[in-house]
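Consider the following input, taken from an annotated entry for RecA-superfamily ATPase (Candidatus Mancarchaeum acidiphilum).
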Amino acid sequence: MRERTKTGIKNFDDIVGGGIPQGNQVALAGGPGAGKTLFSFEYLYHNAKAGEVSLMFSLEETSDMIVENAKAAFPEFKDIDDLISQNKLIIYGSEKTGQYVQRDTDGGSYSFNELVSGISSIASSYKASNLVVDSITVIKLMIKDKLTYRQLTMDLINGLRSQNITSLMTIELNTATREDIQFKPEFFMYDGIISLYLEGGSNNRVPILEVIKMRGTDHSFRTYPYEIKGDGIAVLSLPQIKD
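Applying the prediction step yields:
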């Protein structure tokens, strides 16, 4: 039986049979405001508290913004600064990751080849066990050729898999509702897919979590409401919500 990486998110690990199988590369997909970055941050935070090196690469927000937003959302996480100073929780914000993104000589496209090698080498140098890339969608928006994007993503997935790192990669969906979600072919390169969306009538929109797939473990196929509180995200073990 494969070892598990616990997220520490209340009730979530039970949904995936005790935790994400170690070394899985998981897509965390959701619409705007679903809490993808906070979910990812909490996963890293709990593993950093457990003594494992946890690393976040953000292509959208600076390190200071990520930390400030996490502290505002989770005021009971009192030791964020201590974990950062101990190099257990390492944040590479956009002010650092920008060096790995190069505009091509024609000025019309971007190259992310250095990003893949940069993420892999930095993760190796810190001996990171857990990693987040926030978000893969930024790369997709900047790469015009679909095949190039898929190959780059596969290279990243394979590089992290070879180091037995467990990762979450956030993906922005163009809809917040379940019935309108369309999973692209590249989603199925990942070992797991976790989807965050809204469900219910227009006057009763409830955030919902669903595990679409997770290789290496049995998992629940139910949908679960969740809430973001000061002491962390809580997945609620309640019946599936209907309109």
